[in-house]
Design goal:
This protein has about 210 residues and is mainly alpha-helical. It has one domain (about 30-105, about 125-195). It has helices at about 1-10, 20-30, 35-55, 60-85, 120-145, 155-175, 180-200, and strands at about 90-95, 100-105. A two-stranded antiparallel sheet has the order 1-2. Helix 3 (about 35-55) packs parallel to helix 5 (about 120-145). This is Golgi apparatus membrane protein TVP23 homolog. It is a multi-pass membrane protein.
Length: about 210
């Protein structure tokens, strides 16, 4: 009887790292490949066109229009599509009925199960493209100014302005609006003041 029971039992190998590996694969998986592609395509294409447009065309107007279109497509897609899909951030301007303009910065909260909008790979690609490209356009501004290529100054300043605008908007979404930061600072100072007052009251008199 004992021999039969031993034969019926099976060795079960417990792989405690399987769930962690699966979670890591999900984080590194690109869930929105099309959005990730266009997040980099327009801005990288604008930079490449600016650097090598003289090789393809001698017309300054054609180069200017091409770069302007690429920058416009990039600004619209990053502001309205890729930021929402890849990192769950969104910012826009709202005008009330009385004509008052408000800038709104939103960040989507994780789900109750702790799932975020995009994976870590998508988030890294998003922020890398969002930070590196404005730096390059800023370098182009200085190089154009000091090399006296003044006809390109409007192009590079436009590129830097649009790229920095998106970067600033998403940083505001990430860290919170100014009102939120002010309320957090006020709440923190209030708690510290109350704690200090209670400590003084509880301390025994000499």
């Amino acid at each position: 009887m004992r021999q039969v029971m031993m034969d019926d039992t099976e060795d079960v190998s417990l792989d405690f790292g399987a769930e962690e590996e699966e979670l890591a694969l999900r984080k590194n998986k690109i869930r929105h490949p099309l959005a990730t592609f266009f997040h980099l395509f327009f801005r990288v294409s604008a930079i490449i066109t600016y650097l090598f447009c003289d090789w393809f065309s001698r017309s300054f107007i054609a180069c200017f229009v091409t770069i302007l279109l690429l920058l416009s497509f990039d600004f619209w897609s990053v502001k309205n599509v890729t930021g929402r899909l890849l990192v769950g951030l969104r910012w826009w301007n709202q005008v009330d009925d009385d004509g008052t303009s408000h800038w709104i910065f939103e960040a989507r909260k994780p789900s109750s199960q702790g799932k975020t909008v995009g994976g870590e790979a998508e988030s890294k690609i998003f922020w890398l493209g969002l930070i590196v490209c404005p730096i390059m356009w800023a370098i182009f501004v200085f190089s154009t100014f000091f090399s006296f290529k003044l006809k390109w100054l409007a192009v590079v300043m436009l590129g830097a302005s649009l790229q920095v605008a998106n970067l600033y908007g998403y940083i505001k979404c990430k860290v919170g609006s100014g009102k939120t930061l002010t309320s957090m600072a006020t709440s923190y100072l209030g708690r510290q003041f109350l704690k200090s007052a209670m400590t003084k009251e509880e301390s025994p008199e000499p």
